[in-house]
Amino acid sequence: MSHVLEIMTIDHASDIAQQTPYTETTQETATLHFGNQLQFNGMTYDDSVCVMNTGLHDQKLCIGKTHDHCLSIYTKNIKRYLNLFHNICGAMVWISTTPVRNPGNPLYPQSNAMTAKMNLAVKDILVQHEHGYYVDTWDVAKKSTH
What we know:
- The chain is mostly helical.
- Helix content is 40%, strand content 9%.
- It is built from 5 helices and 3 strands; from the N terminus they run H-E-H-H-E-H-E-H.
- The chain has a 3-stranded parallel β-sheet, covered by helices on one side.
- The mean pLDDT is 91.
């Protein structure tokens, strides 16, 4: 059996930074690539584990919008994101977004309140997937000194 480690950085729950003639979003492009890599390496859905996270960058898109509006958009995007990867990942492991180090800093619009809401939304969506797992890193990260 082949062993393959693929690391793909996906900053947002939905974006158009990486497109192909066959895909319209970065998330579609990533699933196409990952599926092709599985096939190329003679692997199947059951051989794959996807470790995922997004959220902090999504909050930067929320400047001037309410938390409810942003959470609604994020939730819709996460549902689509997870549904795309559900078709190629034998297991989806979501690592929660960690607390923000400098809440209230005008250079960084992310907040711990919004991050906590987004984490909960992902956790609620992920339980709907048979092989979806949520790793809560919030409390451990709050104790970190660096």
